[in-house]
Amino acid sequence: MGMIIDFEEKVREKKFAVVLGTISGLYGQADSIASEYFELMDKNQTQAIEQLPVFMERVRDVNPVRAYESFAGGPNHDWTGPLLNILGVVYPELEKDVRERGLRKCLNFLDGLRYDYAQNQVEVINEPWLAADIVITRPLYWCGYKEYCDLATQHKSWKDFSVNMKGARSPFWLAMAVSNPEYTSLEVRHHFYQQFPQLMDRTRDAIAAMAAVYGGRKAEKKSLDVNECIEYYFEKFDPLLHDDIRAKIKEEKWICLKD
User: Fold this and answer.
1) From CA 140, how far away is CA 150, in angstroms rounded?
2) 70-74 average pLDDT score
3) I want to staple 209 with a disulfide (CB 3.0 to 4.6 A). Which of 105, 214, 245, 254 is the partner?
C-alpha cells in the first residue's frame, strides 16, 4: 500500500519514511538534494533542522525560472515535500525545544508563500505531529482531507478501499478521513486501525491537539465552556477513539506557537 505501509514500517524501524530514487532531469536534481538532506538528518539532526531553509532554497532553485511558482500553485511540493517529510520522521522523537525549532523552520518557509500555496505543502506532510503543530499554530494553512473522504465514501469495503488508497499523498490526512465515521465504514476503520497502529496513535495525538487548541480558542472568543467546545470538536470522529483522545489532550504533546 505504498507510502502508508512505508510510513508504518519505517516508524517501527526508526528509519526515514521517504522514498528517494533515481530520476532524470529537474526531478532528478531535486531528488539529489533531498538525498543529501536525508543523509544530513541521519548524521546530525540539529544541524539538519538549522539547514532546512538552505535546502528549501536549493530545491526551489532547481526550477530555472522561480517566477513560475506564482502561477503554478507555489513551489513544487514533489520537491519540497520530501524535505518536510524527512524532518517529519524524526519530529516525534525530538525534545520539545528542538521540535519547536523545527516547527519554526517549517513555518518560516510556509509563511513566505501565499496561504493557499502553503496549504498545498501541508497536504503532502506525512507526520501527524508536524502537520498538527503547523495547523494549530497557523489555522489558515488547514488543507483539509476531502479527497480522502470522497475515497472512503466511494469504497466501503476494506478490499476496495485498501486497493484505492495506494495513491494517497499523505498517510496522516488519509488517517484523518478514515477516523470520521461519516465517510468510512466500520469494516474500513477496523482494518485500518489494526494494520496501521503507529499512524493511528499519532493521528489521535493530532486530533487531541486540534480539539484542545481550536476548542479553547472558540471558548475564549465566545465565552463558552471550554470542555464543551473541545468535546464538540472531536465528536465527529469515531467514538471508539474518544477516550484515547481525551487522555492525549491531558498529555499536551503538541506545540502551538504564540508568535
Assistant:
1) 22
2) 62
3) 254
Residues 256 and 259: their CA atoms lie apart, in Å, by 9
Task: Give the model's confidence band at 29: pLDDT under 50 very low, under 70 low, under 90 confident, else very high.
Answer: confident
**pLDDT tens figures, 189-217:** 999 999 999 999 999 999 999 999 999 99
Please indicate, yes or no, whether residues 26 and 101 belong to a single structural domain of this protein.
yes
230-248 pLDDT, tens digit per residue, is 999 999 999 999 999 999 9
223: alpha, beta or left? (left if phi > 0; alpha if psi -120 to 50): left
Cell of 216: 479553547
- What is the span of the domain harbouring residue 105? 18-125
Q: How far apart are CA 194 and CA 164, in angstroms?
A: 18
- pLDDT of the residue at 27: 74
206 and 109 housed in the same domain: no
| Triad 79, 84, 86: Cα angle to 5° | 100
Number of folded domains that form the chain: 2
Q: Do 150 and 246 belong together in one domain?
A: yes
Q: What is the pLDDT of residue 20?
A: 44
Judgement on whether residues 151 and 246 belong to the same structural domain of the protein: yes
Question: Domain check: are 161 and 201 in the same one?
Answer: yes
CA distance 87 to 179: 25
